[in-house]
Amino acid sequence: MAFFFFMYFLRSDWHCNKTYPAISNYCVLRGKAIGSVFGENSDCFRNFAVNKTDMALFDTYIIIVAAGSGSRFGSEIPKQFCLLAGKPVVMHAIESLRRALPDSRQIIVISKEEEPRWNELCERYSFDSPTVAYGGATRWASVKNGLAAIPAEAKPNSIVLIHDGARPLVDAPTVKRVCGATINTDGAIPAIAVSDSLRRMGKDGVSSEAVDRNDFRAIQTPQGFKLWGLREAYSLPYQSSFTDDASVMAEAGFENVTLVEGSPDNIKITNPRDIVIAEAILSQE
Questions:
Q1: Is the peptide bond before 156 cis (omega within 30 degrees of 0)?
Q2: Helix H segments across the chain?
Q3: Could you give the C-alpha distances from 108 to 62, 124, 265, 276, in angstroms and in order?
Q4: 1 vs 22: CA distance, rounded Å
Q5: Which domains does the chain possess?
Q6: Considering the entire predicted model, what is its pTM?
Q7: What are phi and psi of 68, to 5 degrees?
Q8: Which of 186, 194, 192, 200 is nearest to 245 (CA)?
Q9: 10 Å Cβ neighbour count for 52?
Q10: Which of 9, 76, 179, 220 could cross-link to 255 by cystine, CB 3.0-4.6 Å?
């Protein structure tokens, strides 16, 4: 199986190398050893504490991207609207984010064709819908449309979190770590250690070589950035190398994007068995 590297710089020692054939959803650590960069017990993640006083200084917006067709899921309806423990997947995601940041303002990005379904689901489950924006042909276009739904008069230093609507189990500590790290950096993304063995595919698509999984981290959402930086980055023309929001920011010159600790439970619903896994996780709460 081919993998792809995220192509953005996190700091002078932490970065993804653009010369590699990429590993999607993985970030590589190069240069100094982990301990010498972040401290011997840090496991490579920066520890950014956040408190109510800090957060009170910043307005927070959350863009929930839920415009995908979910073709890999194999369902007649997009996976974000499929039921998880008796409720649509994306509603779990929104409720989790609202619990973590009750004063935030949320925007859900859905395809225009799915708006009637979304309205019907909100009525059926007595659910208070966030502001609705319409998705585009790519995730990049959907996020850009979500950004456009943030009021023009919003404070430039507002924190914007961008979250996949197919990640229903995001937890409050992860969300708050991302917010805390975003305050004093160009952005923050949650990540977890990789447990599987990894191989890098050769250019012929057949040969491969082993890579050290300790050099990689699996990337999650929400990813957090300042509003003014996102607006500047998303004014750039679309490129196929834009795999996530951090890669868009890197192209605009925002290199100080840091990793914070994510959660193994913050899984992305990709196929039907993920629903079963998510229900098992929910049953333990």
A1: no
A2: 34-38, 52-56, 89-100, 115-124, 139-148, 172-183, 227-233, 245-251, 272-283
A3: 8, 18, 22, 25
A4: 12
A5: 48-189+220-283 (3.90.550.10)
A6: 0.82
A7: -70, 155
A8: 186
A9: 7
A10: 9
